[in-house]
Specification:
Blueprint lengths: L9 H8 L9 E2 H12 L3 E4 L6 H10 L2 E4 L3 H15 L3 E5 L3 H5 L1 H10 L3 E7 L15 H5 L5 E4 L6 H12 L6 E7 H5 L1 E2 L22 H13 L3 E5 L1 H5 L3 H11 L3 E3 L19 H7 L2 E5 L18 E6 L13 E4 L2 H12 L11 H22 L8 H11 L4 E6 L2 H9 L8 E2 L10 H11 L4 E7 H7 L3 H6 L5 E6 L4 H11 L15 H7 L3 E5 L5 H11 L3 E6 L7 H4 L6
Parallel strand pairs: 2-3, 2-4, 4-5, 5-7, 6-7, 9-10, 9-11, 11-12, 12-13, 14-15, 14-16, 16-17, 17-19, 18-19
Antiparallel strand pairs: 1-8
Helix pairs in contact: 2-3, 2-8, 4-6, 4-18, 10-14, 12-14, 16-17, 16-23
Keywords: Metal-binding, Thiamine pyrophosphate
GO molecular function: acetolactate synthase activity; flavin adenine dinucleotide binding; magnesium ion binding; thiamine pyrophosphate binding
Family: Belongs to the TPP enzyme family.
Amino acid sequence: MALTTTGTTARESAAATNGAEPAPAGISGGHLVAKALKAEGVDTIFTLCGGHIIDIYDGCVDEGIEIIDVRHEQVAAHAADGYARITGKPGCAVVTAGPGTTDAVTGVANALRAESPMLLIGGQGALTQHKMGSLQDLPHVDMMTPITKFAATVPHTARVADLVSMAFREAYAGAPGPSFLEIPRDVLDARVPPDQARIPAAGRYRASTKNAGDPADVEKLADLLVHAKKPAILLGSQVWTTRATEPAADLVRTLNIPAYMNGAGRGTLPPGDPHHFQLSRRYAFDNADVIVIVGTPFDFRMGYGKRLSKDATVVQIDLDYRTVGKNRDIDLGIVGDAGQVLAAVAQAASGRTDNGAVARKTWLEELQAVEEKAKRKRLPLQHSDASPIHPYRLVHEINEFLTEDSIYIGDGGDIVTFSGQVVQPKSPGHWMDPGPLGTLGVGIPFVLAAKHARPDKEVVALFGDGAFSLTGWDFETLVRFDLPFVGIVGNNSSMNQIRYGQAAKYGLPRERVGNTLGDVRYDEFARMLGGYGEEVRDPAGIGPALLRARESGKPSLINVWVDPDVYAPGTMNQTMYK
């Protein structure tokens, strides 16, 4: 900082002018937090203000870290999760003690199941008031430990930056995930001489996580794929987490292997690529002789592994050794970075005289026939002129609307289940959903993170009306920060995924218990908060409304009334309703 003619800093002069005391010597805990965030490459924090944490704001201002303030701490945590997914850098949310931290719990839990690296910093009462009943005092670390990879209290100001760096190190160990730090108020506000505070240097305090797996296992997988007659590969979220798009695409194209994608892995191959398959997955998994599962666990989405043929040779590649072979026996497990492993497998297969690619042409044609049959069966619904609007027509129009630069975000139950069958991102990293925790309310926070981090991209978000209601007030945050996006509410005035289950289990007389919402005009809500809003009841009006929302240059909500008595196949097939 520059000195004035009297030898004082400009900041001290400003403080004197405003009647404030000059800052004491040393560096505060809040400023150490900001320096540690800067060293990790964090350029934005998502927050809701509180008295316990304001010194972090002061440090962020000095370090050039942007502060995005929201209306609910759950939004801050979800936005930090979304920021990590979009940028590949860790997200960071800063919340106050007590209810500020408990409000963020859902966002942290979602990041854990989604394997998203983020740091939540929570305030805490002063150490000098420990166990005395200070304002908003709660056992945050005890609460956060089960849903984080690392949770700790910072015991001294000199340790602040060191523990922030430690939290990031743990967030990236194995499969990534969230960390939590609570910083007592007196620790955060106190100052220490800079030479007493360890501030780890950027890029020098944690190891590379790009493990290429056991070379012998890589060779074995290459042999399996080269000799497979009917292989199939599932590219899961870790393909995007590890930025493995190029090696994944190279492997499937070189060896002529049909690829299916789920989670953030969607978009690894563009629609129209001859190796991009979507609707024939069950058929492929029933008939394949080798199945490779990359970066997705055998959880409920995979039928806990039971949806794979018992006769197939099953290979699993994952960052986390605990995931490999969980819920289902496998023939080969490789722990490592998806990009490194897939590149090594392609290299190992490259020297073969015959890699089997030509012979697999018949297998791809067989799967393509299954795909076409499924598409033809659904096409009349995607073009339906029915009113209320058929959900398939809505998601079809959204898919047609997307461009190469459109990041698609799904936030809802039944309506987003429809979209999963139809909407296809055109590029890698352009699909966002909550992940396996199935959290509703991620939509607006993910929009906030995505549009802030990538202002060059268009953001398109589909909400269920129930899902939007959970965090929708932060639409105002998008208006306040001038972050335009195209939002669509598939409105059936119901929590329809649950309604279907109740009807199936208890009968039609009890289908409407605890799941029916009001007929809310979300388009008017958007206009009230300074955005663009439009209502659509005629299916022919969906496309034009989407174009007008895009052209408005504002945060927008298109309120589309969809048929409440139509359910997605995925909803009807959920085992919890059987």
